Amino acid sequence: MISLQPLTNPKPSLLYVHPFSPKPRTKFKPISIHSLLQYNRKPQLAGETPRVVVITSGKGGVGKTTTTANIGLSLARLGFSVVAIDADVGLRNLDLLLGLENRVNYTVVEVLNGDCRLDQALVRDKRWSNFELLCISKPRSKLPLGFGGKALIWLVEALKAREEGVPDFIIIDCPAGIDAGFITAITPANEAVLVTTPDITSLRDADRVTGLLECDGIRDIKMIVNRVRTDMIKGEDMMSVLDVQEMLGLPLLGVIPEDTEVIRSTNRGYPLVLNKPPALAGLAFEQAAWRLVEQDSMKAVMVEEEPKKRGFFSFFGG
Ligand code: ADP
Ligand code: MG
């Protein structure tokens, strides 16, 4: 059984596990699952609402849409009102991951054309009514000339002015790359979640994107390291989370293990965090959502093999 253990006293010289330069490992005291998940209280919402958060990466296929769906629904389950904007115009798929593809009748393009009202384009989730999806355009349709960051700023202002009140979170699923679609998606955001996998191509793109976000005035950038495989880290075939943290120098919002349940849930249109019993990646997304709410971060993470077989929750050291 694997175990994901937060470190209390991270010392890079001891914890750095580079694929080509094995370093000694230290043992860490497991902590209780309750102190991590804190199910016995509601998280304290930090910062001003709406919190406009862009989920970005640079490289495609690293888990932005998966993160948007799972963190978004976790926030809704915690009682916060959430609007998720699918700004990945060319390869829109957030609706599929949420199982809402048949309910998208109108998009932002129709709202801007005056063909429908904003509330007609907002698709309420089937399970959590405080979660709404907003798509920028229909699949394969072209954006109107001049559609850009200003349109998204207008959209955020319009969401603030709704009768229902200001949403707690506006989460923007960003397209891959660093061209016009990326610039449009990050324009209204005041914080960013950078999703990366522990491989060199993803890290290079993530580093470039970090620079661009900072240039755009987004200073609150946290990272999620996705598709982490303990067996590969142990075999020194994959960078450890500490390597990633050292390379990017960003606060850590969460570490998501590689989990076949993610692919299963993607294909079912049923986000992982809703699974009962929860999958490991689902629990990790839930913890990341907690940290996002409280503007908190993890200090450092070590993924290690447990000495002997234990229960399911031993993943979290419980
Ligand atoms: P992006 O939006 O960055 O292009 P997606 O969220 O669409 O990436 O994910 C790309 C693929 O990777 C999907 O098939 C998804 O199911 C898979 N995936 C994402 N995260 C994980 C994970 N932690 N474990 C296993 N598969 C994953
Ligand atoms: Mg995507």
From TrEMBL:
Lineage: Eukaryota, Viridiplantae, Streptophyta, Embryophyta, Tracheophyta
Function: ATPase required for the correct placement of the division site.
UniProt keywords, alphabetically: ATP-binding, Cell cycle, Cell division, Nucleotide-binding, Septation
Residue stretches spanning the membrane: none
Organism: Abeliophyllum distichum
Residues of the CobQ/CobB/MinD/ParA nucleotide binding domain: 53-271
Binding-site positions, ATP: 59-66
A GO BP annotation: cell division
Family: Belongs to the ParA family. MinD subfamily.
GO molecular function: ATP binding
Taxonomy, superkingdom: Eukaryota
Any Pfam family matching the protein: CbiA
Record protein name field: Putative septum site-determining protein MinD
Keyword Transport on entry: no
